[in-house]
Structure formats: C-alpha cells, structure tokens
Amino acid sequence: MAVDQVADFFGFEEHDTDIRTEILAGVTTFLAMSYIIVVNPFILSEAIVIDGYSQGEVIQMIAIATILSSALATIVMALYANRPFGLAPGMGLNAFFAFTVVIALGIPWQTALAAVFVEGILFIILTAIGAREYIINLFPEPVKYAVGAGIGVFLLFIGLQEMQVIVGYEGTLVELGNIASNPVATLGVLGVALTLILWARNVTGAIVIGILTTTIVGWLVAASGLTDPDTVVDGELYSTFAEEGIVTGLWNIVTGVQYDFTPIAGAFIEGLGDIEPVTFLFVMLTFFFVDFFDTAGTLIGVAQFGDFLDDKGELPEMEKPLMADAVGTTFGAMVGTSTVTTYIESSTGIEEGGQTGFTALVVAACFLLALPFVALVSIIPEYASFLALVVVGIIMFQGVTDIDWSHPAWAISGALTITIMPLAYSIADGLAAGIIAYPIIKASMGEGSDVRLGQWVLAVVLVAYYVLQTGGFIL
User: Fold this and answer.
1) Helix H segments across 34-108?
2) Is residue 475 part of a domain?
3) Number of domains in the chain
4) 363-379: pLDDT as tens digits
5) Where do runs of H (alpha helix) occur along 49-182?
C-alpha cells in the first residue's frame, strides 16, 4: 500500500498528521508499554505450571502469547477503530488471575483461561448490541472511580512482597523486610526509586529503563562476588555466561528460542470441561466487569488527553475500540494469557502527535518485531520485573481524586473497594464490598431512590454468594 493510500485509509489529512509523526508516536507508545512483555510472563508463571517444562520455558511461552495477543488486539484497534491506542494483557487482572483465582482459590489455570475466554465472548456480544451504557450505569460511581486505585494497592502489595521488601510475620501477618542486608530487596528498592524518578520527569519508557537498569546492576553485583550469584540472578545462566562468555551466551539464547507454545495455547478448552458453576460464574464476571470499566475508563482518559471526545464528553463510536479489547481478550485466552485491555501509556504516543490507527499499527509491528528476543526475558531477575507492579500501582492512585470523599456513601463504598482488594488478595472481593455497601448506605441516608434496581439486585446476589462461600457451602 503506497503512502498516499495509507494516508487516505487512516485519514491523515483529516486528523492533521503525517506518516513520520504516526511512526514516532507508535514507537513511543510501544516503549512505554513494552514492559508487559517481561512482567506478564513472570506474573502468570506463578500460577501456570506445566509438567515437563521448567518455569523459564513457561515464561517464554507466556511471553509469546503476550506478544501475539497484544499485536492482534492492537491491529484490530488500528484497522477497525482507527484509534492510536495500544492494547496488551492488563496489569491487575493478570495478578488477579494468578494470585487470587489460581493460587488462592485453587482453580486450575486452564479453567481460569476458560473464564477469560467466556468473558471475551460475552464482551463481544454486549459490545455488538450496544449494551455497554446500561452495564456502566449498573456499577455505583464510587466503585468505578475506586477500582483503579484498589488495583493499584493490590499491585503495589504484590510487588513489594515479590521484591522481599514486605515479608510475612506471624504476629502481624506482614512486616518490613531486612532491606539493607537482603540484596534482592536492596536492588528492588533502588530500581523502584530510579523508575519513579524517571516517571516523574516524564521520561518515555521509564518502566522499561528501570527494569533493564536493575537487571544490569543485578548481574554486575553477581559478577563482582559481593553476594552469591544465585541470589540475584539465575544461577544456571550465570554459569553458562561464565563458561561461554556473555556475547556467545546471549547469542545462543537468542538463536535457541523455541516458539512452541502449544502447552498453553488451547488450554482453555480443557478448562471448559472442569467448571464449578457458581465460582466460575463469579470469577468470569469479575474478569468481565474489571476489564469493562478499566477499558472504558482508560479509553475516556486517553481520548480526553488526545482531544477525541465530543461535546457531550463521549468518545464517538466507542464500541469499536471496545470491540478491539474484546477480540484481544478472546484471542489472548485462546493462546494462553489473561485479559487484554487498552493501555493508558497510549497517551505518550498521542503526546508525540499520534492521531490515527496507523500509530496503533506501528505499536503492533513493534510487538511482532520483539518476538525473536523473547528468550532474553530469562536473563531478567524476577525482582526486576516486579518493580513494574510497584510503579504502576502508585501511578494508579490518581483515580482517587474523582471520589467525593465528603459523601458517606461514596467514601464508604470507595474506601472498602480500595482497601479490601489487597487485604483479601482479591480484586473481586474489593469490588463486591463496594457494590454491597453503596445501596445500603444510600438507603440509610434517605437517598434510596437514587439507587438503581440493578444495583440492589447485584448487591443481594453478592451477599448470597458470600454467605454460601464463607459458610463453606461452595468452594
């Protein structure tokens, strides 16, 4: 397709942009969100265990699934919605998938993928028939605004634990770890500090730079003999590099990459045959609602930043970018990853002038170009990847400013949503707490007429579920 045809297809003249600007914007967005290629595999590999395969091999499979699902969803965004937004497996939902659904609830990872697949199909149907407005109104407003911050605390808590900054303690459940005497915690804290400084200074790709810098420092610490190499890096890889040399070792890693990810691709089919109906429905709906509002909120936020909203404050043809999210989620579950969603980091590309779907097409191309290097993920220590959770978690706190803390129903519902998520180690439980509290407090204030019937129904259903679940009647 010639440049003029590309310009006509994406409407460069209408959006006052050109191909050079769109390419620069696409590369910028990719750099800002590419950390997911590293972080998502490390999070999901905590839950996805496959007989006969090492964790490193599973991480590589998930990295491939992450790249493919991100690329496909972003291509749909580019060609169908013509918006400059990048998509990838969402932070928060991948943690919910791994730490709550699989590890805490004991649901097989194949069944969790099945729940994501069903959620994606449901999302496609509801988006196609235009039912998004009713669903958006079904959730209490304080819960909508608190979801981002709640997920932020959840991610922050997980990240600090994985970096051994927060550790278990019998008396108080958790306490501050021995940071100064623990190389992992020390490197993790320094990596977070560097990343936050870069982010505060609006450096593009701050999280990626933070992860790579922390990785390099970790390997230098291992090579210097300051600590046991196996403490801060992969001991087997360290021995390989010591024997073969760094250059040869890296070359062998890149050229030895295996693209067979069939053990996770299609695993959702097996999961569909192993379902406990009530729990499966609850997990699936949690994936659906969090994905729905996260995507809707991100789309509005990024669209507002890029001046894409109309006079009513709405994004025209919002169903199209929502459909890209739905297709990406469905495909992601099929190839072996958690829910795909629109990334707020898309605003970095928009700031560089990205206005059309060609920006998204460049993002997708960058994801595909990263495929030959997925094996290099294995040289990144876990604590370096998990610093992204801490940084993203802090960034997500910005949503609390939209909550009316002076209103009791908003304050109680919002606060419960935010605090229950990390304390119960579950996004679902936090959402449920906020949803149940809102109509009760509103009614007690004499404002019951403001509560929608659907909100009452949802609250009653959740109360019934938790009575059965915490009473031991269902798993």
Assistant:
1) 36-44, 55-76, 93-95
2) no
3) 1
4) 999 999 999 888 888 88
5) 55-76, 93-95, 109-128, 132-138, 141-162
